[in-house]
Request: fold
Amino acid sequence: MPRSRPASLKVRALQWLAQREHSPNELRAKLFRIAGRDAEPPSAAPHAASHVAPPVDAQPPVDAAAEVDALLDWLTARGYLDAHRFVEGRVHARGQRFGNLRIQQELKAHGLTLDAEAALALKTSEFERALEVWRKKFGSASVDAAGRARQARFLSGRGFSADVVRRVVRHSDDD
Reply:
C-alpha cells in the first residue's frame, strides 16, 4: 500500500481550527511539532521507528519557523484564528464551573489575558457562580467545621477567590 503524502501545515491548521478554537500559542506549538517532524529527511528516520516522536527539545529549522509564522498571519488575517474569540469561548465554557483565578490561569497558560470588561463581568458574577457550583455539589450546609473546610477546599480548587469561598460557606450557614 503506497504511503500517502502528509497534509500540508495549512491543511492541518484548518482541520484543527475546524474542530475547536485554538489560541495562537497553542496552534503555533502544534505546527512547530509537525514542521520539525516533516523537516527531517526520510533517510534520517528508519521506517520501523517512524512512530517515535522527535525529542521535545528539538527546534524546527529556521525556514519552518518562518513558514509557521506566515501561516499564523494568514489564518489571523482571514479570521480563522482569533485570540479574542478563543478567550470568549474559554470564558463561556469554563465560567459556570470555575472561578476567576482558574480561568485567568488557563488563559495565561495560552499566553492570553482577559480584557477589562470581561474581567469585570466575571468578577461581578463570581459569587453567584460559586454558590451555584456549591449547591450542585453539596446542596446543604455542613454541620461541622471539617465539612465546611472540605467545601471551602473544593471551591478553592475550582479557582474561586478566598473572599467568595468564605461568603459562600457562610451563606450556606444562613440558609
